[in-house]
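Researcher: Let's walk through a ligand-bound prediction step by step. First, I give you the protein sequence. Second, the SMILES string for zinc ion. Third, you return the three-dimensional complex as structure tokens. Ready?
Model: Ready.
Researcher: Here are steps one and two:
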Amino acid sequence: MVFLSLGVRALVNVEALNMVESVGNIVRHRKAAIVYKRDSAYVVRWVPAVSGESLAHSYQALLASLARQRGLPVCTYCSKHEFVKHADRRIFGDLDWEKKLASRLESVEGGRRRQQVNALEVMHEVEKTIITNCVVEDIGGFLYAGKIPVKRTSRFSCSFMIPALDAVEKAVVETQFQVRHAPTASQVWDQAQMPYNVEVGSAVYAWSFYMDLSSIGCTSAVKSECLGDDERRKRVELAIDALALMLDSRLFGAKHSRFMPVVGYELILVTLSKPLPFNVSPPAMGPCFVEDTVKRIEAFVKATNSSVEVYGYAGDGDAEKLLKANNVRVYKTIVELFEEVKRKALEWLKSQA
Ligand SMILES: [Zn+2]
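Model: Step three, the predicted complex:
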């Protein structure tokens, strides 16, 4: 296994990245209840949050766009950033392989022939066909919910983005009053100048992400069968490049058109590990997550004989000092950091092949 793990802390101001409902003229921000320790007692607080689904959508949208640019295969709906993922035969797209797979499933799932088919063989065939032809579902997983259900677990996992616990008292949600200026239109339609309110959040947010790079391009539902080495290498490059693009260009969440947030990264820590998976400590616990991660790496390497590499990015002088004090290599930009992560990951994957 070659395993990538990421922890991010970012100061985000005036964001409407993840809205959940409209009540009258108010559009509400997603909130989550979190528990944390204040003095010696635990308290509960509702804070602005961005869901893991929202962040996974942004990541997969970038995967789909980059893949198409590079000539890697993407299915009909993933190309449109509609991640319905072959959940049902009715929403299989109109590419030849999708039509063939739909009719194959219709024939094996329907009627008496069901008894004669080997369900495990069908499950393997479905997974192999879909991952061969759609890199988004290879990396992001899918669930076909037919009579012979097939599940591919996502190769990546991500947390909600929530306010860091050390700065949670400074996390706010406030309502911004807006009104469209339409003095003449409102003479003919009284709702033309309708006021509305949008909840916006500001906080030091923390986010965690991990990905198993070595199983990209390999089936896993029934048995492991891998695509060619060259194709797998291109897909691993794609998976890392899309993550770098998402973070560096701040392309995540919704409602950017008029509420594009001001995002300043404080700390980014990335680890690569093999053969066992190592995860960066939660960045929500405070800047101490750097020291905690580094201590855990030392113990982990000794106990498991694994290799772990650690890479850091600092948004300010304090963060840089903290990384250097913990012997973490500091990169000037997020793109350069991920270039190095990619180089090492490909080197490790090649040695495992
Ligand atoms: Zn797809």
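Researcher: And what stands out?
Model: The chain has a mean pLDDT of 96. The radius of gyration is 23 Å.
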